[in-house]
Amino acid sequence: MYKSEQLAQHLKRLIENGSWSAHTKLPSLREQAEISGFSLMTVMNAYQDLEAQGLIYSKEKSGYFIAEHLKAQMPHSTTIVSLNPKIEINSLVFKYLKSIQSKDILPFGSAFPDHHLLTPTKLLQMVSQKARDQKSYDQTTNLPPGNLALRKIIAQRYAMQGISTDADDIVITSGGLDALNLSLQALTQPGDYILLQQTTFYGAWQAAERLGLKVITLPEHPTFGFDLQAFEQVIQHYPIKVCWFMLNAQNPIGFTVSDDIKYKIAKRLHEHQIHLIEDDVYEELFYGMNKPLSMKYFDRSNLVLHCSSFSKTLGAGFRVGWVYAGKYSEKIQHLQLMSTISANALIQNALVEFVSSHHYEKHLRQLRRRLEKNKKRFTQYLKQHLGQCCEIYSFPSGYFLWIRLPLHIDSLELYQQLITQNIGIAPSPLFNVSDSNQHYIRLNCSFEWNPSIQTGLDTLIHYILNLQSQS
Ligand SMILES: Cc1ncc(COP(=O)(O)O)c(C=O)c1O
């Protein structure tokens, strides 16, 4: 065993037995070299190894920190793989989305970042410039598979992550959800088995319901987010056609699965020749120095259809996403021409200019910094006021907090009470169709702190404490 592996294993044991709490700063590389007696290079390799495993995370100019784990988050009973033959979630999601639509509702339940952080001025200038040019509306050059220049830029961004591709592999879609839906439709027939994470984005449940699929769910692993053992058992016992996973900044919980586990998932997919639809719409919203790798990176047999969009970075209103479809490109285009046809031509043209300029990376850096700052503020405040009765899970990416309420509080009831106060929250039945684990809520904390945000949080805290005292 290399020295760096020895050191990584030693530190991993300390992390796993709880010697350090989440977000504790690790000794600097130099300090660790002194403590352990290993060289700086060995320490650096060990830290990078732990980071790849998702046990620690790095922050530019600040060093390495202990990552948040799911420990104790998931009661033991949920470690059961379950079959959900009939799903009926669409009407709940519909009613929920309608209820939080009004401008008067404080958008803690929204899936989108604070719009003040998106739609950069430079992009809007480019859109308005393009809007005056008739050529920008030429739909023919923007029909499926989408604007060639935009596909080339997206392909280059994959290449920057070590994923080789070219423009022909990419299909531009009307947002990320369109990419996910088209991929699932291209790969399945009604009655097929698909595998989802037990707590997952409601879009996956809705798509399964619409396409008449049988859903098996995988429990979250209490420490690593993804339960590899349960995964291996399921794919041995069920004829799974497709998996739909989200492994980076998972919605709603927020965790990112380690590279080591991603590598092992890819290996099993290859052995069983199972396709994976990868939902990676939050891929750019990491806080550390390095963007987490996608499953596509580990996919050597073209089984992964990687779906993403500009909705969480530039604005959901643009409705532009894409799928790295590879050999499924044509099938997806067929389906697209029978449904949404294509993403908006004008916006595709403006995105070509913006995403290829330095403004895009600059915007992403600012966005990540602001999201991290806002999430920290929310976390501190909620831990201070609810720390006694709730568990607040805050992972170093994205803009969601996942909150475990006391067991007897029904998150749907809390949501119904708060909506009468014009406060939105996302209760767990939107993400999990089983009867268990319905005492969680997802909170959007992308907003800049201001008196109305604080009042909203105070009301939320008040209602939770009130329900808690009724036990
Ligand atoms: C996990 C996840 N996937 C996909 C989507 C859909 O993204 P888009 O707005 O690009 O369609 C969302 C939007 O909320 C999401 O949260």
What does this structure look like?
The chain is an alpha/beta fold and 471 residues long. The chain folds into three domains: 3-66, Winged helix-like DNA-binding domain superfamily/Winged helix DNA-binding domain (Arc Repressor Mutant, subunit A), CATH 1.10.10.10; 82-87 and 120-359, Aspartate Aminotransferase, domain 2; 361-469, Aspartate Aminotransferase, domain 1. It contains 16 helices and 16 strands. It has helices at 3-16, 29-36, 40-52, 90-99, 121-131, 148-160, 176-187, 202-211, 228-237, 259-272, 295-298, 329-337, 345-356, 358-386, 411-419, 451-469; strands at residues 56-59, 63-66, 82-84, 170-173, 193-197, 214-218, 220-221, 225-226, 240-245, 275-279, 304-309, 321-324, 391-393, 400-404, 426-427, 440-444. The strands form four sheets. The chain has an eight-stranded mixed beta sheet, with helices on both faces. Strand 7 (220-221) and strand 8 form a beta hairpin. Helix 2 (29-36) packs across helix 3 (40-52), helix 5 packs across helix 13 and helix 7 runs parallel beside helix 8 (202-211). The protein is globular and about 60 Å long. Pyridoxal-5'-phosphate binds at residues 111, 175-177, 201, 203, 246, 251, 279, 281, 309, 311, 316, 321.
In terms of topology, how is this protein built?
Blueprint: H1 3-16, H2 29-36, H3 40-52, E1 56-59, E2 63-66, E3 82-84, H4 90-99, H5 121-131, H6 148-160, E4 170-173, H7 176-187, E5 193-197, H8 202-211, E6 214-218, E7 220-221, E8 225-226, H9 228-237, E9 240-245, H10 259-272, E10 275-279, H11 295-298, E11 304-309, E12 321-324, H12 329-337, H13 345-356, H14 358-386, E13 391-393, E14 400-404, H15 411-419, E15 426-427, E16 440-444, H16 451-469
Parallel strand pairs: 5-6, 5-9, 9-10, 10-11
Antiparallel strand pairs: 1-2, 3-6, 4-12, 7-8, 11-12, 13-14, 14-16, 15-16
The structure holds pyridoxal-5'-phosphate.
